Amino acid sequence: MSRASSQLAFFLCGCYMAALGVHAGEHYVADHHKAGYYVAAVYEHQSILSPNPLALTSRKEALELMNQNLDIYEQQVMTAAQKGVQIIVFPEDGIHGFNFTRTSIYPFLDFMPSPQLVKWNPCLEPQRFNDTEASNMEARF
Length: 141
Description:
mainly alpha; globular; single chain; 141 residues; Biotinidase/VNN; two-stranded antiparallel ribbon; C-N_Hydrolase; biotinidase activity; 2 helices; coiled coil
């Protein structure tokens, strides 16, 4: 599993934690929440994309682009959590972009272990596959 997929896994775990109101041991749940309701947010920004999605790019360049978008998402999750947001939705292709070919998308993709062969939850076991590009990403979230 590479850094981008680990980052995405940790990012989603961070979003989940923010949705629960957990950050640095503090709760950010708004006082006016009632049982059966939650505060949601939708966020979209002009993603930092590959200048030419049809051209093959390096893995390093792909990770740099995705990390820039993840940095923005991380800021928005923390801001939303401070405002009492419990769940936040991001665009489907907001981290890596779109309009790729089968070949040009490859540097943006990650190996994922087969769920039939490996039982793994990256939120619960972030160091299990510590030979990835994101072996220390849990500090990010």
